[in-house]
Amino acid sequence: MTVSTVDKNNSPSSRMVLLKEIKDRSLIFFTNYKSKKGQDIDDNPNICASFYWPPLERQVILKGIAKKCSENYSEAYFKSRPFKSQVSAIISNQSQIISSYDELLKRYDKFLEENKNSDLKKPTYWGGVEIFIEEIEFWQGRENRLHNRVVCSFINNKWETKLLSP
Q1: In this protein, which residues make up the domain named Pyridoxine 5'-phosphate oxidase dimerisation C-terminal (predicted)?
Q2: How many other CB atoms are there within 10 angstroms of residue 146's CB atom?
Q3: How far, in Å, CA of 147 to CA of 139, rounded?
Q4: Mind spelling out the 3-state secondary structure of the chain?
Q5: Could you state, in order of their start, the residue ranges of all structural domains in the chain?
Q6: Is residue 17 classed exposed, middle or buried when 0-12, 13-18 and 19+ CB atoms within 10 A define those classes?
Q7: Which of 24, 39, 58 has its CA nearest to residue 131?
Q8: How far apart are the first and last CA of the chain?
Q9: What confidence category does residue 159 fall into, taking pLDDT thresholds of 50, 70 and 90?
Q10: Residues 28 and 130 sit within 8 Å (Cβ to Cβ)
C-alpha cells in the first residue's frame, strides 16, 4: 500500500509499505521508527493509505490517525520474520545517508556471520504502526470520466456515507 505522511514543515511524503494486517477499523504495517515516515508520524499522526488497481480502474483511500503498536505485539511479529529480515531491520539505519551500497552489504554480512546462531532481539526503534481509519474514499473510474466516488466517514461511532462529484 502507499502511505503518505506530512513532516513538521508540512511537506508531504509517500512511499510503499507492506500491509501486514487488516483489522475491523485499522491497518497495520511495520517500520523503523527513526525513518522519515517514523519521524513524520511522531510529528503529525495524521496519515493516509491508498491502494490502486489500474486494470480495474479502482482506488481506495483511507485516512486516519497513526499510533505505535505495543512492544509485545511488535516483538511477536519481529520473531515471526525470517532471520535475514530480522538482520536487515537491525543493521539498516533507514533513511540515513550511506557512503555506498557495498558498505551496507558488508555490515549485513558481518552481522549475519557474527549472529548466525543467535536469537535476535527486536530493536527498540522498530515496530508496528496501526492506522485507525476515520475516512474511506472509494473511487471507480468510468470511461466517460464521470467517475464514481463514495466517501465514508466514521462519526459518532457510526459510518456516514456520501457521494462525491468526480
Answers
A1: 126-166
A2: 10
A3: 7
A4: CEEEEECCCCCEEEEECCCCEECCCEEEEEEECCCHHHHHHHHCCEEEEEEEEHHHCEEEEEEEEEEECCHHHHHHHHHHCCHHHHHHHHHCCCCCCCCCHHHHHHHHHHHHHHCCCCCCCCCCCEEEEEEEEEEEEEEECCCCCCCEEEEEEEECCEEEEEEECC
A5: 2-164
A6: middle
A7: 24
A8: 23
A9: very high
A10: yes
User: Regarding the domain with residue range 2-164, which homologous superfamily does it belong to in the CATH classification?
Assistant: Electron Transport, Fmn-binding Protein; Chain A (2.30.110.10)
Which amino acid, one-letter code, is at 152? Answer: C
Task: Give the gyration radius of the chain's Cα atoms.
Answer: 19
Contact 51, 59 (CB under 8 A): yes
pTM for the whole structure:
0.91
For 23, the grid coordinates are 483489522
The C-alpha cell 485499522 sits at 26
- Residues labelled catalytic: 145
